[in-house]
Amino acid sequence: MIEQVKAYMEQWNMVAPGDMVYAGVSGGADSVCMLLVLSELAGEFPFTLKVVHVEHGIRGEESRKDAAFVEKLCRQLGLPLKTVSVDVPSYAKREHLGMEEAARMLRYQAFSDLAFGGENVVVALAHHMEDNAETMLFQMIRGSGIDGMCGIRPRRIDENGTCYIRPLLGCSREEIEHFLERRGQTFCTDQTNGDVTYSRNRIRSQILPKLAQINPRAVLHMNRAAEDLGKLRDMLDALADQAQPAVIHPGKQQVALDTAELMKLPEAVRMRLIQRAFAMASGTKKDLARVHLQAVDALLQMQTGRRIDLPGGLWATRSYGEILFSGICGGEELPGPYEITGQMLQTLAEEGFDCLTVVVKNIRFELRIFPWKGKIGEIPQKMYTKWMDYDKIKDGFSIRSRKPKDYFIMDDNGHSKKMSDYFITEKIPADRRDDYVLLAQESQILWIVGGRMGKSAMVDPTTKQILEITAEKISPINTKGGASDGLQQKA
Question: Relative to the CA of 402, which of 48, 88, 328, 449 has its CA 20 to 30 Å away?
Fold first, then answer.
C-alpha cells in the first residue's frame, strides 16, 4: 500500500521537496492509515510532516478520548501535533446550519488558518474511494452539474489559497482496514458515523452496500467515471479560457457578456462563461444554481430591457449586444449616511401619500406604509423588496455603507452577529465589503440591500402596519448631487 499511495501522489503532483504537510488526523481508521503511510514516505519525497487534530466539541468525553489517542500516536511516531478545539453545536445554532455542515466549515477554517501565510504548506486529508463515490451520489441527488459529479479532487487549491491533497483517494476502505490490521494498529470509531439522520451516512451505510450487491466493483467504476468527468471539466475550462477575452468584459460597475460571441459557443462553454461573469460581478460562485445559469442563457433570445434577479444582490439585463451583470453592490461609494427620519415616515403614514422616493447615488428606494392583513403568505420573497414592521422602526434609519461595529440581530432571543463575521462566513472579498448598501439604526443592521434582513424589524403576528421598501439601481444620469427624496401624493 505504501507504494500504491506513493505512485498516486506522484501521479497528481501532491507534494514537492521542502513542502510542509499538515496531516488532518481525527483518530479514525482512514486518517490513522494516512498518517502511517505519510510518516514512511516523508523521507522519500522529502517533506516535513506535522499533524493537526480538530476537536469538534460534539461528543463530549468520547471526543476528548479521540484527541488523547491522536496525541499518543504522534508521540510514538515522533511527530509534532497541534490540536484545535471548536464549538460546532454553538456555531451550527448561530448560523442555522446542520451539525455536519457546521463541523465541515469549522474544520476547513482550522486547516486554512494553519496554512495561512506559510510557503509550501499542504493539508493532507484522508478521503478514500468510498468517500468519493458517496460525494458523487450526494451531489447528483442535490442536482449538481459536472463539477459536483467529478467528486473529490485529488489535489485542490481553495479560494483562500490553501492546498489540499488526498493521498488515499486511490484506495478502498477495505484496503485501508487490511493495512491497519496487518500493522496491528488500533484506531477510534466515531459513533455518529452510524447516525442515518445524516444524508451522507445513509448513502455510506445503506446505498453503497446495495450498489455493491449489483456489482462488487461499483465504487471502483464510479471513481473511474469521476476521473473521466474531471478530464471533461478541465477541457471545458480550457475552452472557456480561450473564449473568455472575447466574451467577458469586466467594468467598474458592471460585467458585460458579448452576446454575439457568446452565441457562437456550445451551450456547455456558454454556461461556464456565464458562471465566470457572475463570479466577477459578485465575488463568489456560491448559490448560483443551474436554474440561474439557464435563465441568463435564455436572455440571449429575449428583447432588450428584459431582466432577471440573481443571488448575491445582482441581476442580469439584456442590452444592445450585451448581457449586463449589475446590482446594488459594486457601485460608487455612498456619500455618507442618508437619513430616513421618523418625521419623514410619520408624514408618509399619516398624510395620505402613496410613497416616499429616495435616490442615493444610483439607487432608488421607494417606501410605502399600509395596514397588514396578517397573512404570512403575502410577504414578498424578493431580493429587492422587503416588508418590515413599521412600529419597530418608526423612529427612522440610515442608508449607508458599513461601519466597524455593525451587527445583526439573528433571532427572537436577541442573539447578534457581527457584520465582519457575516462577510467572512459568506466569503465576501474584503475589497468588496464597502460596496454593500445597508439600512441601519445606529450600529444595528436592518437589511443588507439585496441580501439578508436582521430579525429586529421583521414582520410578526403582532405587526399592524407594513413598511415596504423597494430598491432599484437606476442610471446615474439623474442622480447628480448624491441624494434626493420626494413624497408622491395618492391619487
Answer: 88
